Amino acid sequence: MKDDPGAVASGEGTTYYGLPVIKEPVWTWEVPAYFYVGGAAGAAATIGAVLQVLDGVDSERLVRRCRDIAAIGTLAGSGLLVSDLGRPERFLNMLRVFKPRSPLNAGSWILATAGGLSAGSSLLGRSHGFGRRLGALAGLGAGAIGLPLSGYTAVLLAGTAVPVWKGSRRSLPLLFVASATGAACSLLEMGDFDERELTAVRRLGTVAQLSELALAKAVEKESASVAGAGRPYEEGLSGTLWKASTACTVASLAVDTITGKSRSGRVTAALVGTVGSIALRYSVWLAGRASARDPRATFDSQKKPDE
Amino acid sequence: MATGFFTDTTVCIGCKACEVACKQWNQLPDDGFSFTGMSYDNTGQLGASTWRHVAFIERPVPLAGQTTGLGDLSWLMMSDVCKHCVKAGCLDACPTGSIVRTEFDSVFVQPDICNGCGYCVSACPFGVIDRRADDGRAWKCTLCYDRQREGMTPACAQACPTESIMFGELDDLKERARARVEQLHDMGMGEAYLYGADANEQPGTQGLNAFFLLVDEPEAYNLPPEPSAPDNHVGESWRSLAVGALTLLAAATVAVLSSKGSG
């Protein structure tokens, strides 16, 4: 072959000289980076809206930080996605149709809406009077659209023919939402807020990270239900990153529990958690690339009945 | 009018005239002049600039009418192409509406719309469509949309010297294909069967507008035995996302409310 695909068929059975069946995903490094920033932005928007509704003025600084994270995350995420395109100058074509059947089209509308509302809430929240009230309204809207934004990228992956992604179609969206929530809480914990605000964020972050650990196991199990499909989480760079992500999440939880009362302890835990969250996205991306090269896993994953 | 290809692999002689005719008509760039070292197949697979691909299968299984005289070795050839699925993964996945279904029921990528997002590449259960690195857009067989508009036969079918590639109206093709299977069975080639001829046989794609007559298991030809468009299973993921999102909302609410007493 012009470039050796390095295909290794898992399991027994006929293949065509061990060559891959499906094409390897063409997405470059920007896409998993977007999975992280987009997810964190979505969760932050939702957390901000919840605080806004339940607390009113009490946690104004925290709400503002949530909105800022959402605004920066959606803006940076859009930039990453545009640069991944084969024809970046045509990025607006994503919005030339409304086609929710395509997870990528649905996601583009979600991201565009969340981006506009987050930017609006972040900027207008700094003004006074009517503008501020409008900003609050935008904050609520961003919180609502932040819910799907936190994890739709997992649906995007599951909606492909790639064995390991398709194989974890039920658990992966849950893992992405949990990890995005943990990521947003880590970013918030780096800030200097009052005791009560931090308590809320740390509690949510702990629950999210514990869920992330459990759901990572669920993803492993679900993708392994097709013989060979779960292999990329056990071996190669994707496997290493997968284990590193778990280790970081565990370490983040431990550091936060032991030293979370101090600012430096909190920030350390948040940084380690952030690394774990990013490693998770890169692991899932690389797992998909390795999985697409495995012809037997591809055959068998399609054989599994689609109920 | 629904048109398509019926590729009868039993009469393919592996001349690759279809590959050449396709390249020439569609002015496709070369993919390098490489040597696989595994068989007569130096093309390897379909791709962004390879819209017909002749597979050479050497199988240590004696298949009626396909043996070479050298022991039990069977030598199979198949000209592979985009299947133009009735339920096409690429078409469902395309976020820009660049991929459309034409008046001939074929699946066509509009090059002036495609922005090269690459989602169709991962959505094709057959590994047909791909993004061209130097061009940035996704490309695949058009079923010679331009030729068909002028009432012409697609280039590969026109060039095929043995009528292994047949082009025509789908109803007519299916009738001929079924008759051909019967004929082969009568001749003692009991292994012959149709791949993807209709929705009953291949529910995951609702049938293929470019279907095949094969004599060995699909995997031998690098065809998935039960291909399925990703859209068939993505609903489960949306439901999971809804559960996850509502859990996030509930957890955030509880976290904020429970912190009210502290600090």
Structure characterization notes:
- The complex is a heterodimer of chains A (307) and B (263).
- With 307 residues, chain A is an all-alpha fold.
- Chain A has a single domain, classed as Up-down Bundle (Formate dehydrogenase/DMSO reductase fold).
- Chain A is built from 11 helices and no strands.
- In chain A, helix 1 (30-55) packs across helix 4, helix 1 (30-55) crosses helix 7 (171-189) and helix 7 (171-189) runs antiparallel to helix 8 (195-223).
- The two termini of chain A are 37 Å apart.
- Chain B has one domain (3-232): Alpha-Beta Plaits (2-Layer Sandwich), CATH 3.30.70.20.
- Helix content of chain B is 27%, strand content 17%.
- The longest helix of chain B is centred in the C-terminal third of the chain and has 25 residues, at 234-258.
- In chain B, 52% of the residues are buried.
- Chains A and B meet through helix 1, helix 3, helix 5, helix 7 and helix 8 of A and helix 2, helix 3, strand 6 and helix 7 of B.
Topology:
The complex is a heterodimer of chains A (307) and B (263).
Chain A: H1 30-55, H2 60-84, H3 103-124, H4 130-149, H5 152-158, H6 163-167, H7 171-189, H8 195-223, H9 236-259, H10 263-292, H11 295-303
Chain B: E1 3-8, H1 17-26, E2 52-59, E3 74-81, H2 89-93, E4 99-101, E5 107-109, H3 119-123, E6 130-131, E7 138-139, H4 145-149, H5 155-159, E8 165-169, H6 170-186, E9 193-195, E10 210-214, H7 234-258
Parallel strand pairs in B: 1-10
Antiparallel strand pairs in B: 1-8, 2-3, 4-5, 6-7, 9-10
State the CATH superfamily name of chain A: Formate dehydrogenase/DMSO reductase domain
Which CATH architecture of chain B would you pick?
Answer: 2-Layer Sandwich
Helix content of chain B: 25-40%
Unreliable spans of chain A are 1-9
Give me the count of strands of chain B. 10
CATH class category label of chain B: Alpha Beta
Gross morphology of chain B: globular
Count of individual helical segments of chain A: 11
CATH fold title of chain B: Alpha-Beta Plaits
Largest sheet geometry of chain B: 4 strands, mixed
Radius of gyration of chain A: 20 Å
Estimate the helix proportion of chain A, in percent: over 70%
| Arithmetic mean of pLDDT of chain B | 95
